[in-house]
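Entry for the shared binder. Reason: the reviewer on the internal report wants the predicted structure included alongside the sequence.
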Amino acid sequence: MALQRLQKVIAEAGIASRRKAEKMITEGRVTVDGEIITKLGTKVETFSNITVDGEPIERESLHTYVFYKPRGVVSTANDDKGRKTVVDYFSDLPYRLYPVGRLDYDTSGLLLMTNDGELANLMMHPRNKVAKVYVARIEGQLLPEESKQLARGVEFDHHKSSPAKVKVIRTDKKHNRQIVQLTIHEGHYHQVKKMFKAVNHQVEKLAREKYSFLTLDGLVSGKYRELSHEEVDRLKHVD
């Protein structure tokens, strides 16, 4: 079970700022599971019972979903052009969810939706190198040297990508196309498209089929499923 600092939990519940929450703790005004806590930095579990001045705090329940994002949908909470957003698919739920990172408007596939800020930050922080697996239909056919370039890392936007895993799934010689699986550990803007462009291939169609250990198994476009506590815990401790 993921742990959080007590003062952060109190602040996120809207009781007080984090600094004031620390003062409440040192003054002995906070209990966790019936025990008075005065030590700053104490960590609590998701389901710990916490009171401030004898009143239990209301903690927002945390939820995370795997969503099969369709093409033609924006990965933001709002869109100034009036286009459908990923948040629209969750409008019936009693809590607000946000996407973890983004998928391009014309890209489909696996997107995490959550109200767990800690999880979102962990997933998006570059140091955690979360694996993302994409399948792209590209114009032309990758030459052996081009595959090696992608595997070593290519330059785009004054940046060199980290090494990627490249696997050719299918070659369509008649239409001069290929289906290529690309595994990366970064999340730069239009990264997959720009990586293929760097080796002289245009992406015609793109989908993300895996994020960390999560897949779209059992889902169809536009549908979602909630992650179990075990899956969320595994994400928070992914290597």
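Summary line for the report: The CA atoms of residues 1 and 233 lie 6 Å apart.
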